[in-house]
Amino acid sequence: MPISKCLLKSEPLWKEWDQKAQKNGLRHQVYAVNGDCYVGEWKDNMKHGKGTQIWKKKGGIYEGDWKFGKRDGYGTFSLPDQETGKHRRVYLGWWKGDKKSGYGIQFFGPKEYYEGEWCGNQRSGWGRMYYSNSDIYEGQWCKDKPDGEGMLRLKNGNRYEGSWQRGMKNGFGRFFHLNHGQLFEGFWVDDVAKCGTMIDFGRDEAPEPTQFPIPKVKLLDPDGVLQEALARLKKTEEEEGDRCQLPPPASCCSENTQALEEIQAHVTYCSDRCGSCGGARGTPGSFGDVWRHLWLSQLAGKNATGTSWVEGEDPIKRATM
User: Fold this and answer.
1) Which end of the chain has fewer CB atoms at under 10 Å, N or C?
2) What is the pTM of this model?
């Protein structure tokens, strides 16, 4: 008895062609519509594994790891140099999701580069930046700017150690003026030293020491004075608006004794403090308020008591008696 067999149905030719067209494994040059070229490994029609991408528009070249169509892993990125015509490395390090992430080195110029941590194409974490003017910053970064604790070493050897915010000195820090043999320690706001102490530091070994050493300031409570100045800096604008206003010059007052009492109302005097200024101590800036009032009175040709100025008389001492 004859045996009949069923013929197997053959696959449509388009499926076979489509399977051959799928990019998997190592492929040679594959060009995109815009002219970009990729040579390397593929998986499910996506760049996956080791490969090299060449961008036609900017001439950039990436060599390294890929994952599902994006740069992911370790790789280097190069750009053509307009002067030499050759490619120079711009970045070498780790990538994640097509962005610099992890440890890497970025070259901004022949003598300017950054080495450290990255996150989302921005310098973030610990890093060291070498500037073209030979300055070096080493410390913490956030959103591509120095932020946190860090040290800036200048070309002349001077350095700053302390807090940073938004790429500027902010908070407590120390600035070593090694060329002059001095040390400043205090509080900074947006790269400006607001208050602190300056002392001699290695003045004998300094290449350009100051002509005279810093005299010693004898205060009973220097820490208290510094804390008082810091408290003033940290006041909000609303609190500063509540500060009392200066009284008008004594020449405009009807009663001279009343003008002197108004000045004294702004200052608390301590007899055991510095004798040259009468020991003025009170709210931050009280001594400046007295001086400003006396200066305005001097412009009017009168002193704080309403009488004419006496040549050789100390107006501050007179006002604080």
Assistant:
1) N
2) 0.60
